[in-house]
Design a protein that fits this description.
- This protein is an alpha/beta fold and about 450 residues long.
- It folds into two domains: about 5-270, 4-Layer Sandwich (Metallo-beta-lactamase, Chain A), CATH 3.60.15.30; about 345-435, Serine Threonine Protein Phosphatase 5, Tetratricopeptide repeat (Alpha Horseshoe), CATH 1.25.40.
- Helices cover about 40% and strands about 15% of the residues.
- It contains 15 helices and 13 strands.
- A seven-stranded mixed sheet has the order 1-2-3-4-5-6-7, covered by helices on one side. A six-stranded mixed sheet has the order 8-9-10-11-12-13.
- β4, α2 and β5 (about 80-85) form a beta-alpha-beta unit.
- α11 (about 345-355) crosses α13 and α14 (about 395-410) packs antiparallel against α15.
- The chain is globular and about 75 Å long.
Length: about 450
């Protein structure tokens, strides 16, 4: 068993992260008397009670079996209760491996609607998770990672399910607040919109312990994901402050390390809340002043010293994406540029620009010059224009792929890396399809 509490205390107190904090070992560590954590996608938190094990989250479909096996090494008690902190696939997909115990499943009332939506948009979720977590795997046969995780994604999404049909559904739901007693343990549930609209956090008063789900992920909050549904930064912050007010002495997240000590927990929760509050306040102030999304994106920043904190690094989501989500929440989908209200097709516009520039090759050359000038944002604009203007040109798409691989390498967040790697794969496939063949 790893001493996870000592590790997190050292990292928080020093402000220095010298090893991964989001680990996927499927190993169990007892973090308090009768409380265990299995580090996985996501973690499973287990509470030993007189009625059996009460587990928070079941991890994903690819890790649930290993998680259940790890729990058996710690206790032979059945899982009497299974709590979903929210309905993301990496939290509920592994529940099929808990089904033999016939656990009583608890979750927010919106979990069922989320699971229905996953069925309705099955292929779309496979496609976007392939893009988000694809890295540079050329064969598109992927095993995916943290937050928002679905299943391994293959090139033919129609052959797969995003969420297993055997996923257990909640037996007991609530709207705002709810309390249950399991054995001699009291658990208070609180709903809060943050990463999802079906999220809960739990307070164990006798233990002075919090189970926080994805309200804390040891990264900058996943409040801006560019491919997923709406997130709620200010409500997220309110939940964090409510948790901080409990005086908790033990915090158990669904990703990252557990935390001990009331002062340490309060500091982490309030600093994350403050970062979200400041970001939304600045964005809304600029919206109220009539600024465009373009201006806001390139103006509002989170201070570098905030992003350097071990639990606020932008290695998964990033503040720029949260700005987009705040705009979408309050301002809708139109970005304020009149030409983009009802735009011309990308290929049509790109062809016209290529005609003015002297061909798609000239656009690619301009993209390569931007790379040389260390302006990768501009480079990608011209690379896309070149690719749209010459959709079957092998040389153009080789060049576009190289530019997007350079962009991927320069990005800190997994979301950016995944999308830019997908763009490179897209062009590589075009180049391979249209490459000349020997007679």
């Amino acid at each position: 068993m790893a001493d996870l509490l000592a590790l997190s205390s050292r990292i928080i107190d020093s402000g220095f992260t010298d090893q991964p904090v989001n680990r996927v070992t499927n190993e169990l560590s007892e973090v308090a008397d009768g409380v265990a954590m299995v580090e996985s996608f996501s973690h499973c938190i287990a509470l030993r009670t007189a009625e059996g094990l009460m587990c928070f989250d079941a991890s994903g479909v690819h890790t649930g079996e290993a998680v259940r096996a790890a729990l058996r090494t710690w206790s032979t008690l059945p899982v009497s209760h299974l709590v979903y902190t929210h309905g993301h696939a990496d939290h509920v997909g592994g529940s099929t491996f808990f089904s033999d115990d016939h656990p009583h499943v608890i979750g927010h009332e919106n979990v069922a609607a989320r699971l229905d939506r996953y069925d309705y948009t099955n292929n779309w979720n496979l496609i976007i998770n392939n893009r988000q977590f694809g890295g540079v795997a050329g064969d598109l046969n992927l095993s995916v990672g943290a937050g928002d995780i679905g299943v391994a994604v293959q090139a033919n999404p129609k052959a797969r399910r995003f969420l297993p049909s055997s996923t257990l559904r909640p037996d007991e739901t609530f709207t705002t607040h709810h309390s249950v007693t399991v054995g001699d343990e009291t658990i208070d549930f609180h709903h809060g919109r943050g990463e999802t609209d079906d999220h809960l956090w739990a307070w164990l008063p006798e233990r002075k312990a919090l189970v926080t789900g994805d309200f804390l992920i040891w990264n900058f909050p996943n409040a801006g994901n560019p491919q997923k549904v709406q997130r709620y930064p200010m409500e997220w912050a309110r939940s964090l402050r409510a948790m901080a007010a409990t005086g908790a002495e033990l915090l158990l997240p669904a990703h990252g390390l557990p935390i001990e000590g009331a002062a340490r927990i309060e500091r982490v929760l309030t600093e994350i809340a403050q970062a979200l509050e400041d970001l939304e306040t600045e964005v809304v102030a600029m919206m109220n002043a009539g600024e465009t999304l373009d201006t806001i994106i390139h103006t509002v920043k989170v201070p570098a010293d905030t992003l350097a904190k071990p639990y606020l690094r932008p290695l998964y989501d990033e503040p720029e994406f949260v700005v987009h989500n705040i705009w979408r929440l309050y301002g809708g989908w139109w970005d304020g540029a009149a030409s983009r209200l009802k735009p011309s097709p990308d290929a049509h516009l790109a062809t016209a620009i290529a005609d003015l520039a002297g061909g798609a090759g000239a656009l690619l050359q301009r993209a390569q010059q931007a790379v040389a000038d260390s302006d990768l944002r501009l480079a990608c604009h011209f690379a896309d224009l070149a690719g749209w203007a010459a959709p079957d040109d092998t040389a153009i798409h080789h060049g576009r792929a190289e530019i997007y691989l350079a962009r991927r390498k320069a990005e800190p967040s997994l979301m950016s890396k995944g999308i830019f790697a997908a763009a490179a794969r897209e062009s590589r496939l075009v180049a391979e399809r249209h490459a000349p063949t020997a007679d």
